[in-house]
Amino acid sequence: xxxxxxxxxxxxLAGARVWPHLGxxxxxxxxxxxxxxxxxxxxxxxxxxxxxxxTVQNATHKAYAQPAANLDVQRRAKFFIGNAFFxxxxxxxxxxxxxxxxxxxxxxxxxxxxxHNNDGRGRPPERDGERLVSLVIQFATPVPGDNNEPGSxxxxxxxxxxxxxGGVDAEGxxxxxxxxxxxxxxxxxxxxxxxxxxxxxxxxxxxxxHDNQFSPRVAPSAFGMGLLEAIPESTILERAxxxxxxxxxxxxxxxxxxxxxxxxxxxxxLGWKLNQPDIAHQTAGAxxxxxxxxxxxxxxxxxxxxxxxxxxxxxxxxxxxxxxIFQHIVxxxxxxxxxxxxxxxxxxxxxxxxxxxxAGCESCHRAAFTxxxxxxxxxxxxxxxxxFTDLLLHDMGPGLADGRADFDASGSEWRTAPxxxxxxxxxxxxxxxxxxxxxARDVSEAILWHGGEAEKAKEAYRTLSKSDxxxxxxxxxxx
Length: 479
Hints:
- Helix 3 crosses helix 11.
- A hairpin with a 5-residue loop joins strand 4 (173-184) and strand 5 (190-201).
- Helices cover 29% and strands 12% of the residues.
- It is of the alpha+beta class.
Protein backbone atom coordinates (compact mmCIF):
# COMPACT_ATOMS: atom_id res chain seq x y z
CA UNK A 1 0.00 0.00 0.00
CA UNK A 2 2.85 2.38 0.86
CA UNK A 3 4.49 1.78 -2.54
CA UNK A 4 1.19 2.46 -4.33
CA UNK A 5 0.71 5.77 -2.49
CA UNK A 6 4.25 6.81 -3.37
CA UNK A 7 3.68 5.92 -7.03
CA UNK A 8 0.53 8.02 -7.16
CA UNK A 9 2.24 10.85 -5.31
CA UNK A 10 5.16 10.75 -7.70
CA UNK A 11 2.79 10.85 -10.73
CA UNK A 12 1.05 13.88 -9.29
CA LEU A 13 4.33 15.68 -8.60
CA ALA A 14 5.59 14.89 -12.05
CA GLY A 15 2.30 16.06 -13.52
CA ALA A 16 2.52 19.32 -11.60
CA ARG A 17 6.04 19.93 -12.88
CA VAL A 18 5.22 19.35 -16.58
CA TRP A 19 1.62 20.59 -16.68
CA PRO A 20 2.44 24.14 -17.88
CA HIS A 21 3.87 22.60 -21.04
CA LEU A 22 0.81 20.35 -21.69
CA GLY A 23 -2.01 22.88 -21.79
CA UNK A 24 -2.83 22.20 -25.44
CA UNK A 25 -2.75 18.45 -24.89
CA UNK A 26 -5.13 18.77 -21.95
CA UNK A 27 -7.56 20.74 -24.09
CA UNK A 28 -7.45 18.05 -26.75
CA UNK A 29 -8.01 15.41 -24.07
CA UNK A 30 -11.07 17.22 -22.78
CA UNK A 31 -12.49 17.46 -26.33
CA UNK A 32 -11.77 13.78 -26.91
CA UNK A 33 -13.61 12.81 -23.71
CA UNK A 34 -16.57 15.01 -24.66
CA UNK A 35 -16.70 13.43 -28.12
CA UNK A 36 -16.17 9.87 -26.93
CA UNK A 37 -19.78 8.84 -27.49
CA UNK A 38 -19.70 10.43 -30.93
CA UNK A 39 -16.59 8.48 -31.85
CA UNK A 40 -18.27 5.27 -30.72
CA UNK A 41 -21.19 6.03 -33.04
CA UNK A 42 -19.00 6.78 -36.05
CA UNK A 43 -16.95 3.64 -35.40
CA UNK A 44 -20.06 1.58 -36.20
CA UNK A 45 -20.30 3.45 -39.49
CA UNK A 46 -16.72 2.73 -40.53
CA UNK A 47 -16.47 -1.06 -40.29
CA UNK A 48 -14.77 -2.79 -43.22
CA UNK A 49 -16.53 -6.15 -42.87
CA UNK A 50 -20.13 -5.24 -43.74
CA UNK A 51 -21.17 -8.88 -43.79
CA UNK A 52 -19.18 -10.14 -40.81
CA UNK A 53 -17.20 -13.28 -41.61
CA UNK A 54 -19.07 -13.68 -44.90
CA THR A 55 -17.38 -10.52 -46.27
CA VAL A 56 -15.16 -10.79 -49.34
CA GLN A 57 -12.55 -8.46 -50.81
CA ASN A 58 -13.84 -7.98 -54.33
CA ALA A 59 -14.49 -4.72 -56.16
CA THR A 60 -14.96 -6.12 -59.68
CA HIS A 61 -18.16 -6.53 -61.72
CA LYS A 62 -18.63 -9.82 -59.82
CA ALA A 63 -18.44 -8.19 -56.38
CA TYR A 64 -22.04 -9.14 -55.52
CA ALA A 65 -21.81 -12.70 -56.85
CA GLN A 66 -19.17 -14.21 -54.54
CA PRO A 67 -19.63 -17.13 -52.13
CA ALA A 68 -19.47 -16.20 -48.46
CA ALA A 69 -15.87 -16.19 -47.27
CA ASN A 70 -16.62 -18.56 -44.37
CA LEU A 71 -18.26 -21.38 -46.36
CA ASP A 72 -16.77 -24.85 -46.04
CA VAL A 73 -15.81 -26.90 -49.10
CA GLN A 74 -19.09 -28.81 -49.31
CA ARG A 75 -21.22 -25.67 -49.14
CA ARG A 76 -19.06 -23.91 -51.69
CA ALA A 77 -19.82 -26.76 -54.09
CA LYS A 78 -23.56 -26.31 -53.44
CA PHE A 79 -23.15 -22.57 -54.00
CA PHE A 80 -21.95 -23.11 -57.56
CA ILE A 81 -24.76 -25.56 -58.31
CA GLY A 82 -27.28 -22.93 -57.23
CA ASN A 83 -25.41 -20.29 -59.18
CA ALA A 84 -25.88 -22.32 -62.38
CA PHE A 85 -29.66 -22.53 -61.89
CA PHE A 86 -29.87 -18.84 -60.93
CA UNK A 87 -28.12 -17.75 -64.12
CA UNK A 88 -29.34 -20.19 -66.77
CA UNK A 89 -32.51 -19.44 -68.80
CA UNK A 90 -35.63 -21.57 -68.49
CA UNK A 91 -37.23 -22.91 -71.66
CA UNK A 92 -40.73 -23.51 -73.00
CA UNK A 93 -42.38 -26.88 -72.23
CA UNK A 94 -42.24 -29.56 -73.42
CA UNK A 95 -38.48 -29.74 -73.89
CA UNK A 96 -35.81 -32.41 -73.81
CA UNK A 97 -34.27 -30.57 -70.86
CA UNK A 98 -37.20 -31.59 -68.70
CA UNK A 99 -35.71 -30.20 -65.49
CA UNK A 100 -35.49 -26.74 -67.04
CA UNK A 101 -38.77 -26.39 -68.94
CA UNK A 102 -42.03 -24.68 -68.07
CA UNK A 103 -41.27 -21.03 -68.91
CA UNK A 104 -44.38 -18.86 -69.04
CA UNK A 105 -46.87 -18.90 -70.70
CA UNK A 106 -46.61 -15.25 -69.58
CA UNK A 107 -43.37 -13.87 -68.18
CA UNK A 108 -41.10 -10.89 -67.56
CA UNK A 109 -37.74 -12.66 -67.80
CA UNK A 110 -36.27 -16.06 -68.66
CA UNK A 111 -33.88 -16.31 -65.72
CA UNK A 112 -33.23 -14.90 -62.26
CA UNK A 113 -30.07 -13.22 -63.53
CA UNK A 114 -31.99 -11.36 -66.25
CA UNK A 115 -33.45 -9.11 -63.55
CA HIS A 116 -30.77 -9.48 -60.86
CA ASN A 117 -27.82 -9.25 -63.24
CA ASN A 118 -24.60 -10.26 -61.43
CA ASP A 119 -26.84 -10.49 -58.32
CA GLY A 120 -27.23 -6.72 -58.48
CA ARG A 121 -29.89 -4.09 -58.93
CA GLY A 122 -32.22 -3.64 -61.91
CA ARG A 123 -33.13 -0.43 -63.68
CA PRO A 124 -35.99 1.09 -65.66
CA PRO A 125 -35.78 1.31 -69.48
CA GLU A 126 -33.27 3.94 -70.58
CA ARG A 127 -34.52 4.59 -74.10
CA ASP A 128 -37.83 4.73 -75.96
CA GLY A 129 -39.03 1.34 -77.10
CA GLU A 130 -36.90 -0.63 -74.64
CA ARG A 131 -38.96 -3.42 -73.11
CA LEU A 132 -39.36 -3.89 -69.38
CA VAL A 133 -37.00 -6.51 -68.00
CA SER A 134 -35.62 -5.66 -64.58
CA LEU A 135 -38.50 -3.32 -63.75
CA VAL A 136 -41.83 -4.96 -62.93
CA ILE A 137 -45.25 -3.26 -62.79
CA GLN A 138 -47.14 -4.80 -59.87
CA PHE A 139 -50.93 -4.54 -59.69
CA ALA A 140 -53.39 -4.53 -56.81
CA THR A 141 -56.98 -3.64 -56.01
CA PRO A 142 -58.13 -1.57 -53.01
CA VAL A 143 -59.69 -4.64 -51.41
CA PRO A 144 -57.03 -7.10 -50.16
CA GLY A 145 -57.11 -10.74 -51.16
CA ASP A 146 -56.73 -13.79 -48.93
CA ASN A 147 -54.60 -13.36 -45.80
CA ASN A 148 -54.39 -9.59 -46.43
CA GLU A 149 -52.29 -10.08 -49.57
CA PRO A 150 -52.73 -7.47 -52.32
CA GLY A 151 -55.69 -8.24 -54.55
CA SER A 152 -55.05 -8.95 -58.25
CA UNK A 153 -56.37 -7.24 -61.36
CA UNK A 154 -59.13 -9.53 -62.69
CA UNK A 155 -57.71 -9.51 -66.24
CA UNK A 156 -53.97 -9.13 -65.68
CA UNK A 157 -53.29 -10.70 -62.31
CA UNK A 158 -50.55 -9.54 -59.97
CA UNK A 159 -48.26 -7.80 -62.46
CA UNK A 160 -47.85 -6.90 -66.13
CA UNK A 161 -46.13 -9.61 -68.20
CA UNK A 162 -44.67 -8.07 -71.39
CA UNK A 163 -43.54 -11.41 -72.87
CA UNK A 164 -45.26 -14.69 -73.76
CA UNK A 165 -44.53 -18.05 -75.35
CA GLY A 166 -45.70 -18.83 -78.89
CA GLY A 167 -49.48 -18.90 -79.34
CA VAL A 168 -50.12 -16.70 -76.30
CA ASP A 169 -50.54 -12.93 -76.40
CA ALA A 170 -48.23 -10.95 -74.12
CA GLU A 171 -50.20 -8.76 -71.73
CA GLY A 172 -48.84 -5.41 -72.90
CA UNK A 173 -46.17 -2.91 -72.15
CA UNK A 174 -45.73 0.51 -70.59
CA UNK A 175 -44.23 3.75 -71.87
CA UNK A 176 -42.35 5.85 -69.32
CA UNK A 177 -42.02 9.60 -69.65
CA UNK A 178 -40.60 12.04 -67.11
CA UNK A 179 -41.65 15.32 -65.62
CA UNK A 180 -38.77 17.49 -64.46
CA UNK A 181 -38.78 18.94 -60.95
CA UNK A 182 -36.39 21.82 -60.38
CA UNK A 183 -34.79 22.52 -57.02
CA UNK A 184 -31.90 24.27 -55.31
CA UNK A 185 -29.43 23.32 -52.64
CA UNK A 186 -29.01 25.71 -49.74
CA UNK A 187 -25.93 27.25 -51.36
CA UNK A 188 -27.86 28.09 -54.53
CA UNK A 189 -26.65 25.24 -56.75
CA UNK A 190 -29.56 23.91 -58.81
CA UNK A 191 -30.63 20.30 -59.36
CA UNK A 192 -33.28 18.46 -61.40
CA UNK A 193 -35.28 15.41 -60.37
CA UNK A 194 -37.17 13.16 -62.79
CA UNK A 195 -40.72 12.18 -61.82
CA UNK A 196 -41.74 9.14 -63.92
CA UNK A 197 -45.18 8.90 -65.52
CA UNK A 198 -46.52 5.63 -66.91
CA UNK A 199 -48.81 4.91 -69.86
CA UNK A 200 -50.00 1.35 -70.49
CA UNK A 201 -49.99 0.32 -74.14
CA UNK A 202 -50.85 -2.70 -76.32
CA UNK A 203 -53.04 -4.20 -73.59
CA UNK A 204 -54.13 -7.57 -75.01
CA UNK A 205 -56.89 -8.53 -72.59
CA UNK A 206 -58.96 -5.39 -72.26
CA UNK A 207 -58.73 -2.45 -69.94
CA UNK A 208 -57.18 -2.55 -66.53
CA UNK A 209 -59.68 -2.52 -63.67
CA HIS A 210 -60.94 1.01 -62.96
CA ASP A 211 -59.65 0.78 -59.40
CA ASN A 212 -56.34 -0.86 -60.33
CA GLN A 213 -53.40 0.35 -58.24
CA PHE A 214 -49.97 -0.19 -59.76
CA SER A 215 -46.43 0.06 -58.48
CA PRO A 216 -43.26 0.02 -60.63
CA ARG A 217 -40.44 -1.83 -58.88
CA VAL A 218 -36.91 -2.55 -60.02
CA ALA A 219 -35.22 -5.78 -59.01
CA PRO A 220 -33.21 -5.29 -55.79
CA SER A 221 -29.75 -6.70 -55.19
CA ALA A 222 -29.67 -10.34 -54.10
CA PHE A 223 -26.50 -10.44 -51.98
CA GLY A 224 -26.66 -10.33 -48.18
CA MET A 225 -30.26 -11.53 -47.96
CA GLY A 226 -29.29 -14.62 -45.98
CA LEU A 227 -27.88 -12.36 -43.26
CA LEU A 228 -31.03 -10.24 -43.18
CA GLU A 229 -33.05 -13.44 -42.80
CA ALA A 230 -30.94 -14.40 -39.79
CA ILE A 231 -31.50 -11.25 -37.70
CA PRO A 232 -33.70 -12.03 -34.67
CA GLU A 233 -37.17 -10.51 -34.90
CA SER A 234 -36.76 -8.96 -31.46
CA THR A 235 -33.71 -7.06 -32.68
CA ILE A 236 -35.59 -5.63 -35.64
CA LEU A 237 -38.46 -4.53 -33.41
CA GLU A 238 -36.11 -2.59 -31.11
CA ARG A 239 -36.51 0.47 -33.31
CA ALA A 240 -40.18 0.05 -34.16
CA UNK A 241 -41.99 3.14 -32.87
CA UNK A 242 -45.45 3.25 -34.43
CA UNK A 243 -46.66 6.18 -32.31
CA UNK A 244 -43.34 8.09 -32.42
CA UNK A 245 -43.24 7.94 -28.64
CA UNK A 246 -39.78 9.54 -28.50
CA UNK A 247 -40.90 12.49 -30.65
CA UNK A 248 -38.07 12.25 -33.19
CA UNK A 249 -40.41 12.16 -36.19
CA UNK A 250 -39.41 8.57 -37.04
CA UNK A 251 -42.11 5.93 -36.56
CA UNK A 252 -40.81 2.78 -38.23
CA UNK A 253 -43.08 -0.23 -38.21
CA UNK A 254 -42.78 -3.86 -39.31
CA UNK A 255 -44.86 -5.38 -42.06
CA UNK A 256 -46.79 -8.53 -41.19
CA UNK A 257 -47.03 -10.86 -44.16
CA UNK A 258 -48.40 -14.32 -44.90
CA UNK A 259 -46.08 -17.29 -44.54
CA UNK A 260 -47.40 -20.03 -46.86
CA UNK A 261 -45.47 -22.72 -45.00
CA UNK A 262 -46.36 -21.76 -41.45
CA UNK A 263 -49.90 -20.64 -42.44
CA UNK A 264 -49.72 -17.51 -40.33
CA UNK A 265 -48.67 -13.87 -40.43
CA UNK A 266 -44.99 -13.24 -39.70
CA UNK A 267 -42.64 -10.27 -39.92
CA UNK A 268 -41.61 -9.27 -43.45
CA UNK A 269 -37.88 -8.95 -44.17
CA LEU A 270 -37.43 -8.68 -47.95
CA GLY A 271 -38.92 -6.67 -50.80
CA TRP A 272 -39.47 -2.95 -51.36
CA LYS A 273 -42.33 -2.97 -48.87
CA LEU A 274 -41.02 -5.86 -46.75
CA ASN A 275 -43.72 -8.03 -48.28
CA GLN A 276 -41.79 -11.32 -48.18
CA PRO A 277 -40.83 -13.23 -45.01
CA ASP A 278 -37.74 -14.95 -46.42
CA ILE A 279 -35.74 -15.84 -49.51
CA ALA A 280 -37.85 -18.92 -50.27
CA HIS A 281 -41.05 -16.85 -50.50
CA GLN A 282 -39.30 -14.11 -52.47
CA THR A 283 -37.97 -16.68 -54.94
CA ALA A 284 -41.24 -18.58 -55.29
CA GLY A 285 -43.12 -15.32 -55.85
CA ALA A 286 -40.70 -14.26 -58.58
CA UNK A 287 -40.86 -17.65 -60.30
CA UNK A 288 -44.66 -17.51 -60.28
CA UNK A 289 -45.38 -13.93 -61.31
CA UNK A 290 -42.29 -13.02 -63.35
CA UNK A 291 -41.03 -16.26 -64.93
CA UNK A 292 -44.39 -18.02 -65.01
CA UNK A 293 -43.25 -21.21 -63.31
CA UNK A 294 -44.82 -23.05 -60.40
CA UNK A 295 -43.17 -24.29 -57.20
CA UNK A 296 -44.46 -26.23 -54.21
CA UNK A 297 -44.69 -22.92 -52.37
CA UNK A 298 -46.61 -21.25 -55.24
CA UNK A 299 -48.22 -24.17 -57.15
CA UNK A 300 -50.78 -22.27 -59.24
CA UNK A 301 -50.37 -20.87 -62.74
CA UNK A 302 -50.82 -17.09 -63.09
CA UNK A 303 -53.23 -17.11 -66.07
CA UNK A 304 -56.49 -15.24 -65.38
CA UNK A 305 -59.90 -16.44 -66.56
CA UNK A 306 -59.87 -14.26 -69.71
CA UNK A 307 -56.45 -15.53 -70.82
CA UNK A 308 -57.72 -18.71 -72.50
CA UNK A 309 -54.61 -19.49 -74.57
CA UNK A 310 -52.50 -19.11 -71.45
CA UNK A 311 -54.74 -21.54 -69.58
CA UNK A 312 -54.52 -24.08 -72.43
CA UNK A 313 -50.73 -23.93 -72.83
CA UNK A 314 -48.62 -26.97 -71.84
CA UNK A 315 -46.83 -26.88 -68.50
CA UNK A 316 -43.51 -28.25 -67.35
CA UNK A 317 -45.07 -30.48 -64.68
CA UNK A 318 -46.46 -29.87 -61.24
CA UNK A 319 -44.55 -28.18 -59.82
CA UNK A 320 -42.45 -26.98 -62.74
CA UNK A 321 -39.50 -26.22 -60.46
CA UNK A 322 -38.64 -29.34 -58.50
CA UNK A 323 -38.14 -28.95 -54.76
CA UNK A 324 -34.49 -29.96 -55.17
CA ILE A 325 -33.72 -27.30 -57.78
CA PHE A 326 -35.73 -24.71 -55.89
CA GLN A 327 -33.70 -25.36 -52.73
CA HIS A 328 -30.44 -25.04 -54.67
CA ILE A 329 -31.51 -21.56 -55.79
CA VAL A 330 -32.55 -20.55 -52.26
CA UNK A 331 -29.30 -21.91 -50.79
CA UNK A 332 -27.29 -19.99 -53.37
CA UNK A 333 -28.86 -16.69 -52.35
CA UNK A 334 -28.32 -17.46 -48.66
CA UNK A 335 -24.64 -18.09 -49.36
CA UNK A 336 -23.92 -14.87 -51.28
CA UNK A 337 -21.21 -12.76 -49.67
CA UNK A 338 -21.23 -9.05 -48.93
CA UNK A 339 -18.39 -7.01 -50.48
CA UNK A 340 -15.98 -5.25 -48.14
CA UNK A 341 -15.97 -1.50 -47.57
CA UNK A 342 -13.41 0.69 -49.31
CA UNK A 343 -11.57 4.00 -48.66
CA UNK A 344 -12.29 3.94 -44.92
CA UNK A 345 -9.09 5.83 -44.08
CA UNK A 346 -9.91 8.73 -46.39
CA UNK A 347 -10.49 11.90 -44.33
CA UNK A 348 -13.48 12.82 -46.50
CA UNK A 349 -15.14 9.46 -45.81
CA UNK A 350 -14.61 9.86 -42.06
CA UNK A 351 -16.07 13.36 -42.18
CA UNK A 352 -18.98 12.04 -44.22
CA UNK A 353 -19.71 9.46 -41.52
CA UNK A 354 -20.15 12.22 -38.96
CA UNK A 355 -22.37 14.16 -41.36
CA UNK A 356 -24.44 10.99 -41.94
CA UNK A 357 -25.09 10.89 -38.20
CA UNK A 358 -25.71 14.62 -37.88
CA ALA A 359 -28.28 14.55 -40.68
CA GLY A 360 -30.21 11.76 -38.92
CA CYS A 361 -29.69 9.20 -41.69
CA GLU A 362 -28.75 6.45 -39.23
CA SER A 363 -32.15 6.75 -37.55
CA CYS A 364 -33.50 4.59 -40.39
CA HIS A 365 -30.36 3.31 -42.11
CA ARG A 366 -29.31 1.38 -39.02
CA ALA A 367 -25.60 0.67 -39.06
CA ALA A 368 -25.26 -2.60 -37.13
CA PHE A 369 -27.03 -5.85 -36.33
CA THR A 370 -25.95 -9.22 -34.97
CA UNK A 371 -27.54 -12.35 -36.38
CA UNK A 372 -28.91 -15.10 -34.16
CA UNK A 373 -27.82 -18.72 -33.88
CA UNK A 374 -28.31 -20.57 -37.16
CA UNK A 375 -27.47 -24.23 -36.55
CA UNK A 376 -28.44 -25.28 -40.09
CA UNK A 377 -26.68 -22.28 -41.67
CA UNK A 378 -23.58 -21.85 -39.50
CA UNK A 379 -21.94 -19.32 -41.85
CA UNK A 380 -24.74 -16.90 -40.91
CA UNK A 381 -24.59 -17.47 -37.14
CA UNK A 382 -23.64 -14.68 -34.73
CA UNK A 383 -22.38 -12.38 -37.45
CA UNK A 384 -22.06 -8.65 -36.79
CA UNK A 385 -23.17 -6.97 -39.98
CA UNK A 386 -23.56 -3.42 -41.25
CA UNK A 387 -26.37 -3.31 -43.82
CA PHE A 388 -27.56 0.27 -43.15
CA THR A 389 -31.24 -0.64 -42.96
CA ASP A 390 -33.59 -1.09 -40.01
CA LEU A 391 -35.86 -3.58 -41.88
CA LEU A 392 -38.85 -1.38 -41.01
CA LEU A 393 -41.41 0.58 -43.02
CA HIS A 394 -41.39 4.37 -43.08
CA ASP A 395 -43.78 6.89 -44.59
CA MET A 396 -41.70 8.58 -47.28
CA GLY A 397 -44.26 11.22 -48.19
CA PRO A 398 -46.39 11.84 -51.29
CA GLY A 399 -43.46 12.26 -53.69
CA LEU A 400 -42.61 8.54 -53.57
CA ALA A 401 -46.10 7.20 -52.88
CA ASP A 402 -47.53 4.68 -55.34
CA GLY A 403 -50.96 4.35 -53.72
CA ARG A 404 -50.64 0.54 -53.59
CA ALA A 405 -51.11 -1.11 -50.21
CA ASP A 406 -49.08 -4.26 -49.57
CA PHE A 407 -50.15 -6.18 -46.45
CA ASP A 408 -49.72 -3.60 -43.65
CA ALA A 409 -47.66 -1.21 -45.81
CA SER A 410 -49.60 1.79 -47.04
CA GLY A 411 -49.12 3.36 -50.44
CA SER A 412 -46.56 5.83 -49.07
CA GLU A 413 -44.63 3.44 -46.82
CA TRP A 414 -41.41 1.78 -47.94
CA ARG A 415 -38.75 -0.33 -46.27
CA THR A 416 -35.42 1.33 -45.52
CA ALA A 417 -33.24 0.24 -48.43
CA PRO A 418 -29.96 -1.48 -47.40
CA UNK A 419 -27.00 0.64 -48.45
CA UNK A 420 -24.22 -1.93 -48.21
CA UNK A 421 -22.38 -2.40 -51.50
CA UNK A 422 -24.00 0.67 -53.08
CA UNK A 423 -20.67 2.18 -54.09
CA UNK A 424 -19.99 -0.79 -56.39
CA UNK A 425 -23.29 -0.69 -58.26
CA UNK A 426 -21.89 1.20 -61.25
CA UNK A 427 -19.11 -1.38 -61.63
CA UNK A 428 -21.44 -4.37 -61.20
CA UNK A 429 -24.52 -3.22 -63.08
CA UNK A 430 -23.35 -0.37 -65.27
CA UNK A 431 -25.77 2.16 -63.84
CA UNK A 432 -26.47 4.14 -60.67
CA UNK A 433 -30.28 4.16 -60.73
CA UNK A 434 -31.85 4.00 -57.26
CA UNK A 435 -35.18 3.92 -55.37
CA UNK A 436 -38.00 1.43 -55.85
CA UNK A 437 -38.68 2.48 -59.45
CA UNK A 438 -35.17 3.57 -60.41
CA UNK A 439 -36.17 7.22 -60.83
CA ALA A 440 -33.09 8.55 -59.00
CA ARG A 441 -30.04 8.75 -61.26
CA ASP A 442 -27.59 8.78 -58.36
CA VAL A 443 -27.35 8.84 -54.57
CA SER A 444 -27.85 12.60 -54.33
CA GLU A 445 -31.14 12.43 -56.23
CA ALA A 446 -32.27 9.49 -54.10
CA ILE A 447 -31.73 11.58 -50.96
CA LEU A 448 -33.56 14.56 -52.47
CA TRP A 449 -36.62 12.38 -53.14
CA HIS A 450 -36.92 11.60 -49.42
CA GLY A 451 -39.96 13.06 -47.71
CA GLY A 452 -42.36 12.25 -44.91
CA GLU A 453 -40.43 10.84 -41.98
CA ALA A 454 -37.19 11.50 -43.88
CA GLU A 455 -37.96 15.13 -44.71
CA LYS A 456 -35.77 16.47 -41.91
CA ALA A 457 -32.80 14.33 -42.98
CA LYS A 458 -33.32 15.35 -46.63
CA GLU A 459 -33.31 19.02 -45.66
CA ALA A 460 -30.17 18.53 -43.59
CA TYR A 461 -28.45 17.18 -46.71
CA ARG A 462 -29.92 19.81 -49.04
CA THR A 463 -28.65 22.66 -46.88
CA LEU A 464 -25.09 21.34 -46.45
CA SER A 465 -22.25 23.14 -48.15
CA LYS A 466 -21.04 21.62 -51.41
CA SER A 467 -17.92 20.19 -49.77
CA ASP A 468 -19.97 18.63 -46.96
CA UNK A 469 -22.39 17.13 -49.48
CA UNK A 470 -19.41 15.64 -51.29
CA UNK A 471 -18.11 14.18 -48.03
CA UNK A 472 -21.45 12.58 -47.16
CA UNK A 473 -21.70 11.10 -50.65
CA UNK A 474 -18.11 9.83 -50.37
CA UNK A 475 -19.07 8.04 -47.17
CA UNK A 476 -22.08 6.39 -48.85
CA UNK A 477 -19.90 5.45 -51.82
CA UNK A 478 -17.51 3.71 -49.40
CA UNK A 479 -20.29 1.31 -48.47
